[in-house]
Amino acid sequence: MTKVKNLEELVKLRNKLKDKIQVRTITEGNDLVARIRVAMGTCGIASGAKETFEALISEVERLDLKVLITTTGCMGACYAEPTVEVTLPNQEPIIFGEVDSKRAVDIINEYIIKGKLIDGVVPQNYQSI
Ligand code: FES
């Protein structure tokens, strides 16, 4: 995992991620197979959300899927970072927790492509437990 040591490195990282986000935004449209939001709050970044984001982009590009990947701020689940929200067409969003690079690839291949839930779903409120 790359460690950010100063403000200059943080700005470079932000700009690099912005470029990737813009590339992914181009695919926005009605034929999307999924939308993915990666939580990039402080706790998410500290837990490896950058690597998760890059793994998602690499797998989506490798499979040439129409998936919109963006970042978002804190989703309120520090204990489960990195967290990723996935929304399939006409379905409620699902948040997955502790999404490392391997789980990111599994989310794409198992949940997005096959529609099978995988471990690590984070309840969105206490009423849903
Ligand atoms: S600060 Fe960690 S989820 Fe909000």
Give the structure's gist in a few sentences.
The chain is of the alpha+beta class. The protein is 40% helix and 15% strand.
Can you walk me through this structure?
- With 129 residues, the chain is an alpha+beta fold.
- Helix content is 40%, strand content 15%.
- Helix 3 crosses helix 4.
- The model has no long low-confidence stretch (mean pLDDT 87).
- The site of FE2/S2 (inorganic) cluster has 7 residues, from loops.
> What would you call the structural class?
alpha+beta
The residue fraction in helices comes out at 40-55%
Order of helices and strands: HEHHEEEH
Oligomer: single chain
Give Rg in angstroms.
14 Å
Q: In percent terms, what proportion of residues is strand?
A: 5-15%
Coarse morphology: globular
The residue ranges in which pLDDT falls below 50 over 5 or more consecutive positions are none
Largest sheet report = 4 strands, mixed
Bound chemical compounds: FE2/S2 (inorganic) cluster
Annotation field: number of helices: 4
First-residue to last-residue Cα separation: 33 Å
Q: What's the average pLDDT?
A: 87
**How many β strands by DSSP?**
4
Question: How are the strands of the biggest sheet laid out side by side?
Answer: 2-1-3-4
